[in-house]
Amino acid sequence: MFSIMNSASPKLFSMESILCYATTTEGSDLHFDTIARSNICNIEVTGSEEPLGHTIYKISHEILWQCSADGNLHAKTMILFDALGHYRWEAKLVLILAAFATNYGEFWLIMQLYPRNPLAASVAMLKRLPNDLSALKPRFKALGLLIKTMVDVTKCIMKFERLQLQQVVLDYEAMAVTKSQIYMATYWVIRSTLTCSSQNFLFRHSDSSTIAIWELSSLVCRLSGIFSRLRQQVDVCLQLLETQMHIKLLNVFKETHIDNQEVLNLLFSLNDDLPLKDCSSEAKLAVSELKNQVALLLISKPDLPLEELLLLVQQTCDHTDQEKLKGSYKIVWVPIPSSTTWSRAEEISFDFLSNCLPWYSVRQPWLLSLTVPKWVEDKRNFCICGSDNLDWIREVNAKMREISSVGVQVEMLYVGKNNPTEHTRSILATIDKEMTSFSLTSMKMQFFWLRLESMRRSKLRLGYTHDNDFILRETSGLLDPDENEKGWVIIGRGSSTEIIKLQGEKVMECLNLFSTWGENVAKLGLVDAIRTALEPPLVTGPCDHSNVIPYVEGLMEGTAVCNICKRPMQKFIVYKCDGIVGSSSQQLGKKGKSIFRN
């Protein structure tokens, strides 16, 4: 079974650019040409000794031959099916559309050049191409709609073929229905290609123009219906797959492995056998290059700020232990965009940085399974604990393990105490023996408290006070705790500022109420479930309280709980015009506010 590797997407993108020009009479867009050329250069066919260009050439000639030969359209379609028999389903469609695009693109290239190019004029005369296309505009408009629908169907099938079906087992009925619809859709795309390619169809006399437009419109209607049903079915399969893959990713990190290969293959190699590249040499690498080495994943947005990037490069390359550690670890940059699709700016930033960094990088991050960014971005619950009372620490840790054992995901971390004493260090040694993955190293613990102190000094220099700044108030509370209390914990989720801070006996009181608030964790989240249990509602009847919060990316995700009645709130998005002429939708989006109300 032959397939198109390095993704069929660049080929489809280049083909779309040709068909985009071909269905309009506008001039060329040079920027679009550049993008198309840069994307087409990395395509290759696996499983076939024949060059890709020769394959497309043969198919395009077969299409032209069938258009000029006698016989019904169904029989001609099946002949093309036989010619594409060894290719995967998405490859069949990409190749057939590419072959059509070369023929159709050649026609439009001649038509655009012949008024000012003698060679093009001579070729147009030999091919007996029409001098005036104005009478054919309605026909080309219908043709453009059909081409767009064919491309949409092809993208949908490519989306299904990329699903990592080798990793999980999907529902048999859902798979059978989807594959049946793919077979039907492929047939009608190939049949539509033959219809579009017929020279007699495109350029017969104007008195048959109405019939031609009707035939094209009928195909658009049929393919649109097929596309609608297929898209729904592919979305069902995608949802089933993402659910199972997310569970698999969560479980694989809980297992013991002899090396890092299973985990890294699951993260990076589902769609690409050479998913990595050496940024300095641009060599394509397999995940096996990281075997028996520590793999440090640098996860960020594609557009890394240059100042932060240079600082990070300096910290890693100029480290005092660099020579000693050289060869024992590799840094792999994993860029993840803000949305499920890559913007042109993000692509440009990735192309530039991935060729400059002294590390490894994911070679084609847009091929990563959608489940991987979801797993990376999944906001994890954390519980930070500080104390110099070992018995209290053991008690808290035991209760947190009990809570985790019933399925509540929370990661606990012991950070000691500001200005640690020898007693604190002995506690740290005991924790390392009794409570695995629970504490920082002594060095990292010092950095934690130094960082908090630096944050406090920075806030004070800027003129903030404890009364008007949340961060200053909380950092001071940690740096100068109540000495009469046994310790403190902070419970939060990801980068959200929504946290719960408890001290001394309040900690165990809260954890002992797990039977009360535990059942609400799935619905409200860990933080809001605890808050609802600790803070009784101010009203018991109907509540119409609302809260307007300025938009901050990632700040208010998921469910919000009313401060008054402690019930989940509905979320609405409001956009306010800034009154500036020419504001873009992106700028207006930044003016958005989240309104939560009951």
Automatic annotation (TrEMBL):
A Pfam family matched in the record: SEO_C
Start and end residues of each Sieve element occlusion N-terminal domain: 45-257
GO BP term, example: phloem development
Transmembrane parts of this sequence: none
Domain of life from the UniProt record: Eukaryota
InterPro entries documented for this protein: SEO_C, SEO_N, SEOA
Residue ranges occupied by any Sieve element occlusion C-terminal domain in the UniProt entry: 372-578
Protein name: Sieve element occlusion N-terminal domain-containing protein
Organism name: Nyssa sinensis
Record lineage: Eukaryota, Viridiplantae, Streptophyta, Embryophyta, Tracheophyta
